[in-house]
Design goal:
The chain has 260 residues and is of the alpha/beta class. It has one domain: TIM Barrel. It is built from nine helices and eight strands. Helix 8 packs across helix 9. The longest helix has 18 residues. It is globular and about 50 Å long.
């Protein structure tokens, strides 16, 4: 199963590219859930949500869309079991409805691939109350078969990130869930000081088609793949997510599933 969606859904610039002008913002999530099967939510990286607001995710999507939430940023740097428990407890409505796909933790370049850091990942995984931990690394040492084997031994899912150009994405399935983020290919401009460039990118059909073998490979290894577009400016994420759905449906290996 391959589910396709975007990182976030509350963007004013998606009107009218995706959301009709006549649609009240309160109805955006319901509209989104009719088109895409998954969504990554980022605000939880900065604050613990109220359980009532999480229940709205269930109500608006009618039990369909799968969600991934970013873990509080403090958890990537220190062992805060109390904070992890509060985070996990707040998400229980989605866990109860079967819509909580996992929790994403992002680590900076200085978080290298060595034993002490791997143990930190294991402790974070254990603190999340059974949620699937997904990890994204800024250090390329984690993007190797050796590191993937370590993550697989702990059933920690590796986020496979496309941001550096064709053929440079490491597709590694390390858990029952595989995770792919398309972040645009302007990383060099961003490193050189163009702060607005990182996610301002529209993938071509050919660029997305070239990634299909890697995505299909993850599906064969893990059984379930979530693909998220993280290039929201000017509606580029929804344009590319729809484009990828079309490519997957046309692919001879079978259709993409965007309804669960």
């Amino acid at each position: 199963m391959i589910l396709v969606g975007t990182c976030g859904f509350q963007y004013k610039e998606w009107v009218p590219v995706f959301y009709p002008k006549s649609l009240d913002p309160a109805g955006w999530l319901r509209h989104y859930s009719r088109v895409f099967g998954c969504c990554e939510i980022g605000f939880t990286g900065y604050r613990i949500p109220e359980t009532s607001s999480i229940q709205e995710f269930v109500d608006e999507t009618q039990g369909g869309t799968q969600f991934v939430f970013r873990v509080p940023w403090q958890l990537a740097g220190e062992n805060r079991e109390d904070l992890a428990k509060r985070f996990a407890a707040a998400l229980w409505p989605l866990k109860d409805s079967g819509q909580l796909a996992g929790a994403l933790a992002q680590f900076p370049p200085e978080f290298g691939f060595f034993g002490e850091n791997f143990e930190r990942l294991r402790r974070l995984r254990d603190s999340l109350g059974g949620m699937q931990l997904i990890v994204e690394f800024g250090c390329s040492d984690w993007l190797s078969p050796k590191a993937a084997r370590h993550l697989a031994s702990a059933r920690i899912a590796l986020a496979c990130v496309d941001e550096n150009g064709p053929g440079k994405t490491f597709f590694g399935a390390t858990a029952d869930l595989a995770y792919v983020r398309f972040q645009g290919r302007n990383r060099c401009r961003w490193i050189q000081g163009d702060g607005s460039a990182l996610h301002d990118y529209l993938y071509s059909r050919a660029e997305l088609a070239a990634a299909l073998p890697g995505i299909r490979g993850l599906e064969r290894q893990s059984g379930r793949v979530l693909v998220l577009m993280n290039n929201p400016w000017r509606g580029q994420a929804v344009i590319n997510a729809r484009m990828l759905l079309e490519l997957l449906k046309a692919d001879s290996d079978g259709p993409a599933d965007h309804s669960c």
